[in-house]
């Protein structure tokens, strides 16, 4: 989980993230960020998620739950 | 589906690039994203400059130019061409076939076969498969395979999803019977349930172009395009490539009884640098063995991207050296295909401009 938070922080170009942070509130949130998250899920967690899945997950914890549910 | 071909070779590849170069930065003001965000995209995706045809230039112009160059340089004899296969998704007309237009432009012999194939990203593979099959005929000794697309004309300039990566180009590949016996392994898989992942929704018979289909609308990500424009579901393409292409190539190598280390180069279709690097990582092969520099230098010209990767990265080395090359194309259809063959002693392997 901590590892996941730092991976996401890196993609979002911030020092750290909180579990309840809303994805769309980040300054660098865009389609490239979404693709980077899809790539992270594929590489680090071997799961497949879509742009739509990412959008629907809303928050950092939502994203984590999504990835966990596919593992 | 596994395929196997015997005693065939590629004896020359020519890529024809439009002179007109468009820089990523020049188009940045068209997108509804901050400059900082677009520059980050440029960095990650490897966007830099693309080659785009001038207004009105069609694929038959590029192909005719390339073949005339080969005739003039005496690298190809007009009368030797027994078959002309053109793979494209941007034909001059619905009918006649653009291969007929090219045959007429060049005054090729009548005792031959010319045909168009509608394929994109896997178009080089599909074209080679067809060429190899035609060469089984006694009277077909030399096939000219043309890959050509000018899809920039169907991409919205305000679509940051597609516009920065699309390029135009054509290639001529000479395929013939090989005097030295060889076996070429290939495979192809298709999934038409994903036919909407990459498409131009309007302009065909299903939805003819009208003033309605030319209306620009904004998508959820902030890109503007019309139904007449090319639309790509980038995330689905990414997942598709990561999921399907590694097993495709691994199965090919098993059939050919070869290891990844036996392959000198993996020449793949290039949607963008990001996707190819992730593919190399997933396959567990060094990134230098899978060149990913075509999009940043020329743009992705669909089925022409593999021949361009060969002419740009290997070029003259293929006139004397020998390389064991794995090709892989994947995309529109959805279609994914790969092929493993030894390439050497080409008569030509270069890029010219139009």
Structure description:
The complex is a heterodimer of chains A (71) and B (354). Chain A is an all-alpha fold. Chain A has one domain (2-70): Non-ribosomal Peptide Synthetase Peptidyl Carrier Protein, Chain A, CATH 1.10.1200. Helices cover 61% and strands 0% of the residues of chain A. Chain A is built from four helices and no strands. Chain A has helices spanning 2-12, 31-44, 51-57, 60-70. The longest helix of chain A is centred in the middle third of the chain and has 14 residues, at 31-44. With 354 residues, chain B is an alpha/beta fold. Chain B has one domain (1-354): Peroxisomal Thiolase, Chain A, domain 1, CATH 3.40.47. Chain B has ten helices and 17 strands. Chain B has helices at 24-27, 35-45, 59-72, 98-106, 123-134, 234-255, 273-283, 294-297, 305-313, 317-320; strands at residues 2-6, 8-17, 21-23, 49-51, 83-87, 113-117, 142-149, 169-177, 183-190, 198-199, 217-218, 224-225, 231-232, 265-268, 322-331, 335-344, 348-353. In chain B, the strands form five sheets. Chain B has a six-stranded mixed beta sheet, with helices on both faces. In chain B, a hairpin with a 3-residue loop joins strand 15 (322-331) and strand 16. Chain B is globular, with a radius of gyration of 19 Å. The two termini of chain B are 38 Å apart. The mean pLDDT of chain B is 96. The chains are: A mainly alpha (71), B alpha/beta (354). The A-B interface holds A 28, 30-32, 34-36, 38-39, 42-43, 48-52, 55 and B 33, 37, 40-41, 44-45, 160-161, 220-222, 233-236, 238-239, 242-243, 274, 278, 281-282.
């Amino acid at each position: 989980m901590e590892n996941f938070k730092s991976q996401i922080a890196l993609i979002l170009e911030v020092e750290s993230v909180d579990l309840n942070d809303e994805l769309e509130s980040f300054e660098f949130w865009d389609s490239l960020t979404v693709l980077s998250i899809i790539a992270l899920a594929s590489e680090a967690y071997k799961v497949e998620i879509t742009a739509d899945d990412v959008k629907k997950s809303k928050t950092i914890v939502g994203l984590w739950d999504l990835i966990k549910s596919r593992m | 589906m596994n395929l196997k071909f015997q005693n065939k070779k590629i004896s020359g590849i020519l890529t024809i690039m439009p002179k007109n170069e468009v820089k990523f930065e020049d188009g940045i003001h068209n997108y509804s994203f901050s400059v900082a965000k677009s520059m980050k995209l440029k960095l990650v995706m490897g966007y830099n400059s693309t080659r785009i045809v001038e207004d009105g230039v069609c694929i038959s112009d590029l192909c005719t130019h390339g073949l005339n160059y080969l005739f003039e340089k005496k690298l190809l004899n007009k009368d030797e061409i027994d078959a002309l296969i053109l793979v494209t998704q941007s034909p001059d007309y619905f009918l006649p076939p653009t291969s007929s237009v090219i045959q007429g432009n060049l005054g090729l012999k009548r005792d031959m076969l010319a045909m168009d194939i509608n394929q994109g990203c896997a178009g080089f593979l599909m074209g080679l498969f067809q060429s190899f099959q035609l060469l089984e005929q006694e009277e077909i000794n030399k096939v000219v395979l043309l890959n050509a697309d000018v899809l920039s004309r169907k991409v919205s300039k305000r679509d940051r999803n597609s516009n920065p990566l699309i390029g135009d180009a054509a290639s001529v590949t000479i395929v013939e019977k090989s005097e030295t016996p060889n076996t070429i392994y290939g495979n192809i898989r298709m999934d038409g349930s994903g036919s909407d992942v990459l498409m131009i929704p309007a302009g065909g018979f299903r939805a003819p172009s009208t003033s309605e289909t030319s209306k620009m609308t904004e998508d959820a990500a902030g890109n503007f395009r019309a139904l007449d424009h090319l639309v790509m579901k980038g995330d689905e393409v990414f997942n598709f490539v990561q999921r399907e292409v590694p097993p495709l190539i691994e199965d090919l190598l098993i059939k050919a009884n070869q290891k990844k280390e036996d392959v000198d180069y993996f020449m793949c279709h290039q949607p963008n640098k990001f996707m190819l690097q992730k593919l190399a990582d997933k396959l567990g092969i060094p990134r230098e063995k899978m060149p990913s520099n075509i999009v940043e230098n020329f743009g992705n010209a669909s089925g022409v991207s593999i021949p361009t990767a060969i002419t740009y990265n290997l070029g003259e080395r293929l006139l004397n050296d020998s390389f064991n090359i794995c090709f892989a194309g994947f995309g529109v259809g959805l279609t994914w295909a790969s092929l493993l063959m030894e390439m050497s002693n080409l008569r030509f392997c270069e890029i010219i401009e139009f």
